[in-house]
Amino acid sequence: MTRTPAVPMLCDVNVLLALVTDGHAAYAAGGHWFDGGSAGGATIFGAAPRDCSRTSTGIGGKVQLPEHVVIPEDKLVRYLLVPHEENDKCQFLGIAGYTVATWEILARDLHDLAKTHGISDMAISPYGIKWEVPGTLTGPNGQVLYVVTIWITLEASGETRFVTLFPDRERQP
Predict the structure, then answer these.
(1) Is residue 18 classed as helix, strand or coil in its secondary structure?
(2) DSSP-based three-state secondary structure for 70
(3) Residues 28 and 92 occupy one common structural domain
(4) Which of the residues 102, 113, 155, 158 could staple to 135 if both were Cys, CB 3.0 to 4.6 A apart?
């Protein structure tokens, strides 16, 4: 019986990427979907879609990012925590006391968010799988920020990296 996977994966690559959906481990390899099954064997349950470059689906928080994520220092000290004319995040993060001087606290808090909050959405990009993880950051001054973080698992290396964040407008008081 062929089933459609709940979460689409990268297409036409020989990458093995596991996700847990509805209690089943599902993964894509060699262009096919497999079900890990309860006996440890893999059962094919359908071919991976050929053109999924713009696929996006709600995941509903059942899946979390991998244990090891990369949060580049430059992304924080030269982008998020520095004022910009457009898409400025510095002022928003400043509400909670995050500054260039406290970038390590922001890095730790982002790492904690990645480990404790589930993925709400994903999309395929030319570079890999982008993940959306909503959550909260409690800044150095105790102020809570509701945020949506964006991460990417790079197709080339398999590394999951922090991309950006923005205020969660649906949850802001």
Answers:
(1) strand
(2) strand
(3) no
(4) 113
